[in-house]
Specification:
Structural class: alpha/beta
Largest sheet: 4 strands, parallel
Distance between the termini: 19 Å
Order of helices and strands: EEHEHHEHEEHEEEHEEHHEHH
Strand content: 5-15%
Bound molecules: guanosine-5'-diphosphate-alpha-D-mannose
Number of strands: 12
CATH topology: Rossmann fold
Strand order of the largest sheet: 3-4-5-10
CATH architecture: 3-Layer(aba) Sandwich
Shape: globular
CATH class: Alpha Beta
Helix content: 40-55%
Radius of gyration: 20 Å
């Protein structure tokens, strides 16, 4: 397996600690390469050297709120970066299957339930860039016969979720408040409805999409709605604290245009390759809170060792 990572002056592989292998490891099965979606020639060279069977294009500036602050950069990476990668595949002449990480953010203002036939109405520069990338994947399928697939994934979460997305921000804060190392949790819009699933199940769904005989586009979702408020309430309830005592509002976390409700219909994925989400709702909240309690406990007791690489 080969992975592409951005160069950083500090270590940036902690979220793959579980599978990371040092370059000195004999019979290594994971190889990481520095690259970037704006480095077109580098992408061609990498693809030519690696000759992948499958390419999972997950790279993006993926934070919706940040995309309002950096619309041009978001368009360059999330949108045009997809063009760079698709062209690099053609230039390197690699007959690989291609997975495009499309997003339920593309549905934006279109009311739920959303499925593969729902019109797109993005509500952020990020959503608009993802719509462009979606159609590019469809276009390369139609124009060049590429095995290009759009996975339209609704929010998928886990203990590895980045700390600035709302689920992890909440579960991490709840663990810290319960341990007495944080006083308050500041959030924006509590009324937004999301369809939160468990990321490992979604990754299996992505892989299944690329194992089909024909390329196509699929929604992955739980179909179970939950508000941000309900997610936070379940997290505080898990540690026996009253949410109202700790939750505060900060308008900085609101967006100039909001996506009010995302609730997916994954019937096509179920009918085609038997995929259905198992973990959602309060079970997902508790799983994430418990993981953050353990991580904090390890950190506070000095058991967490930063791995140098
Ligand atoms: N991040 C964040 N921080 N969101 C907040 C906060 C806060 O303090 N307070 C309220 N929210 C609300 C947001 O306004 C939004 O309605 C909801 O919580 C979820 O926000 P995020 O967790 O940032 O996720 P997202 O739904 O905007 O986008 C995620 O899911 C998409 C798939 O639908 C990202 O992972 C995208 O990259 C992904 O495409």
């Amino acid at each position: 397996m080969h992975g592409a990572i951005r160069r950083s002056s500090s270590f940036n592989t902690d979220r793959i600690d579980g599978i990371y292998q040092d370059p000195q490891t004999s019979d290594r099965s994971l190889f990481l390469h520095h690259t970037d979606l704006v480095d077109g020639v580098g992408l061609v060279n990498l693809l030519r050297d690696v000759q992948p069977d499958e390419v999972y294009h997950l790279a993006a500036q993926s934070h919706v709120r940040v995309s309002f602050e950096m619309p041009h950069y978001t368009g360059l990476t999330t949108g045009l970066g997809t063009a760079q990668l698709l062209e690099a595949i053609r230039a390197a002449d690699v007959p690989c299957r291609f997975y495009q990480a499309s997003s339920s953010e593309m549905f934006g203002a279109t009311p739920p339930p959303q499925n593969e036939h729902t019109p797109f109405h993005p509500r952020s520069p990020y959503g608009a860039a993802k719509v462009y990338a979606y159609w590019l994947a469809v276009n390369y399928r139609e124009a060049y016969g590429m095995f290009a697939v759009n996975g339209i994934l609704f929010n998928h979460e886990s203990p590895r979720r980045g700390e600035t997305f709302v689920t992890r921000k909440i579960t991490r804060a709840v663990a810290r408040i319960a341990a007495g190392v944080q006083d308050r949790l500041y959030l924006g819009n509590l009324d937004a409805v999301r369809d939160w699933g468990y990321a490992p199940e979604y990754v299996e769904g992505m892989w299944r999409m690329l194992q089909q005989d024909q390329p196509d586009d699929y929604v992955l979702a739980t179909g179970v709605p939950m508000t941000v408020r309900a997610f936070a309430a379940a997290a505080f309830e898990r540690v026996g604290l009253e949410m109202e005592k700790y939750l505060a509002h900060d308008a900085r976390y609101e967006r100039p245009a909001e996506v009010d409700a995302l609730i997916g219909d994954a019937g096509k994925a179920l009918g085609t390759f038997g995929w259905a989400a198992q973990v959602h709702g309060v079970d997902l909240v508790h799983l994430m809170v418990e993981a953050d309690i353990k991580a904090l406990d390890d950190q506070l007791s000095g058991r967490t060792i930063r791995i140098d690489r």
